[in-house]
Amino acid sequence: MATPIQILDTNILVHYVREDHWWAQIGVDYQLLLVEPTPLISIVSAGELRSLAQQWNWGREKRDRMEFALGFFQMIPVDSPEQILIYSEIDNFCLERGRVMGKNDLWIAATAALTDARLLTSDADFELLDGVYLNLEWVRAPES
Questions:
Q1: What is the pTM of this model?
Q2: How many whole angstroms separate alpha carbon 70 and alpha carbon 4?
Q3: How far apart are alpha carbons 83 and 30 in whole angstroms?
Q4: HSE on the CB side for 48, CA within 13 Å?
Q5: Which residues 6+ apart lie within 8 Å of 112 measured at CB?
Q6: Residue ranges covered by each domain of the chain
Q7: Do 54 and 66 form a contact (C-beta atoms < 8 A)?
Q8: CATH architecture of the domain covering 6-138
Q9: What is the pLDDT of residues 88-140, one digit of tens each?
């Protein structure tokens, strides 16, 4: 069976850069650096990750890992009319249900919906959209 296309939430990239215990588990479970097709990331995640690098004062080693990730994973822009329409639909869908979703998450969700990619995340920010606009997979917490 072919591996479905995956799109990574920004938090997955943060775990990669930090080489933390979450990433160790993700590496075992998902093999993101080996799987074909290469996972996708939204260009929005690239901007968010670069901002976090500045906010958290990442040193050279973490910034090098960040640059590797941004060059390795397939980056998807946010510029198609279909993606903009999906963004507006998802935003409205959430607001109608009393949920305000962050703008970066809206773009990531719209990109997942547009590409029909399974969204890997370690948080519940996209739970409302699972099975409606996208297919979600929560990365499980590492075992202690």
A1: 0.94
A2: 20
A3: 27
A4: 18
A5: 7, 118, 119, 133, 134, 135
A6: 6-138
A7: no
A8: 3-Layer(aba) Sandwich (3.40)
A9: 999 999 999 999 999 999 999 999 999 999 999 999 999 999 999 999 999 88
